[in-house]
Amino acid sequence: MAKSDAKKLMGKMTAPGATGFGGADTAIVDKREQRKRDQALGLVPFAVKLNGDLVQQLHALAKERGLDLNETVAAVLAAGLAAK
């Protein structure tokens, strides 16, 4: 009982999403706002299961191109579908 009370107190002492000293002052976007932004851009969530080696290749390609994983996967899919 005392442990759970202590955890509650500790949780109230730190603000959710707060960064420590020297942290970046970037605004954290909540999931609802991010979903609205994605919908405005015409993005649709699309989950797939891929082989681990393929995922590593996609991560390496994204890092090499300086893009995020979503942009890289979209480019690879678009190029693959255009070649068809």
Structure, briefly:
With 84 residues, the protein is mostly helical.
Describe the structure.
The chain has four helices and no strands. It has 84 residues and is an all-alpha fold. It has a domain at 45-84: Arc Repressor Mutant, CATH 1.10.1220.
What is the alpha-carbon Rg in Å?
20 Å
Taking the alpha carbons of the first and last residues, their distance comes to 63 Å
Largest sheet: none
Would you report the number of β strands?
Answer: 0
What coarse outline follows from CA principal-axis ratios?
elongated
Average pLDDT taken over every residue:
84
Give the % helix: 55-70%
CATH topology of the domain at 45-84: Arc Repressor Mutant
Give the CATH level 1 class of the domain at 45-84: Mainly Alpha
- Summing up helix and strand content along with how strands pair, one would put the structural category as mainly alpha
Strand content: under 5%
Looking at the overall shape, the CATH architecture of the domain at 45-84 is: Orthogonal Bundle
In the predicted model, the low-confidence regions spanning at least 5 consecutive residues are none
Figure out the total of helices: 4
What is the string of helix and strand elements?
HHHH
SSE inventory with pairings:
Blueprint: H1 2-13, H2 31-40, H3 52-65, H4 69-82
Helix pairs in contact: 3-4
Features:
0% strand, 84 residues, Arc Repressor Mutant, mainly alpha
